[in-house]
Amino acid sequence: MSFDVVSIGSGVLDVLLRSSQFTITPVHEELMLCEMYGGKQNVEDAVLASGGAGTNTAVSFARQGLKTACIVELGIDVPAQIIVDDLIKEKVDRSLLVHREGERTGISAVLVANDGSRTALTFRGAAHHLTKENIPFDTLKGVKAIHLSSIGNTQVILAIMQFCKLNTIFLSWNPSKMEAEDVFLRAPNKQELFTDVLFVNDSEWKGIASQETLVRQVAKTIVITKGKDGGQTLSTSGDSSYQAEKLENVVDETGAGDAFAAGYTGSILRGKSHEEALSFAIDNATGVVMQMGAKAGLLQL
């Protein structure tokens, strides 16, 4: 089966609630979203939409004109049907989706504050139940690229890395902090590690920075995102930094990281330069944070 890119990750149903009355309170050098216990509160906006990095990035790739499939694990329930309907609308191939009876599709309740920052309360459900048996490696031998986001299973991550390395398939990887540390700090066979592009935020990078030499050997390009402060890229051709757009009236930051990663990777797959890919990634993330939900603002080419 020939695809330009297959996105592997999570699929969840997002329930987003936005209110100017959500209370942000400093607690021990952190900011906490605190609401009255036992009370009720009205919200100004509510959105029900598909989410999860696997489906978010798949939709972004499809909107860039790339032939895209998605591997996420879902239950057989109403949330799964909403996610599938979204993928149908966005022309993402569903033949590789994993549906498992008896499992519940993941759901995330996202509380969005007036400045666009959010707190996500996530029931991952089926989203983190992918196993190596769920990945159709024989089918994937014909694909040009795989984008891997958080799946909660280090053994599957390592298997995908080895598969891409052996079959010369472009791999971009956007792990969670735990996954990055499991792979770069604790994986027994570090010579088998591989990715073309690694996306990490500032906190994730700090967790693996002690192994910077190894990470640079494994990943051809490392993109370290720092939100509103821009970020930096590390590669064999040189290190550089980039600036984020200065935005006012941000609506919702949900999905910004997925939009950035898919924007960068999709641009590289479309033959764009590193600089062009960064520019598109920033624009893609900007489009997302100006609307509610992780997909509404993704750029369409």
Description:
With 301 residues, the protein is an alpha/beta fold. 31% of the residues lie in helices and 27% in strands. The strands form 4 sheets. Strands 6-1-11-12-13-14-15-16 form an 8-stranded mixed β-sheet. The protein has a 4-stranded mixed β-sheet with strand order 5-2-9-10. α4 (154-166) links the parallel β11 (145-149) and β12 (170-174). The radius of gyration is 19 Å and the shape is globular.
Properties at a glance:
301 residues; alpha/beta; UDP-N-acetylmuramoyl-L-alanine:D-glutamate ligase; 8-stranded mixed beta sheet; 4-stranded mixed beta sheet; 31% helix
Q: How are the secondary structure elements laid out?
A:
Blueprint: E1 5-8, E2 12-18, E3 23-27, E4 30-34, E5 45-51, H1 53-63, E6 68-71, E7 73-74, H2 78-89, E8 98-99, E9 106-112, E10 118-123, H3 137-140, E11 145-149, H4 154-166, E12 170-174, H5 177-186, E13 195-201, H6 202-208, H7 212-218, E14 219-225, E15 231-235, E16 240-242, H8 256-269, H9 274-289
Parallel strand pairs: 1-6, 1-11, 2-9, 7-8, 11-12, 12-13, 13-14
Antiparallel strand pairs: 2-5, 3-4, 9-10, 14-15, 15-16
Helix pairs in contact: 1-8, 5-6, 8-9
The total number of structural domains is: 1
CATH superfamily label = Ribokinase
The major pleated sheet works out as:
8 strands, mixed
* CATH architectural group: 3-Layer(aba) Sandwich
- The radius of gyration computed from the alpha-carbon positions, rounded to a whole number of angstroms, is 19 Å
Separation, N- and C-terminal Cα atoms: 24 Å
Number of β-strand runs: 16
| Fraction of residues in H or I helices | 25-40%
Low-confidence stretches: none
Keywords: Kinase, Transferase
Family: Belongs to the carbohydrate kinase PfkB family.
Domain Carbohydrate kinase PfkB: 37-296
GO molecular function, one term: kinase activity
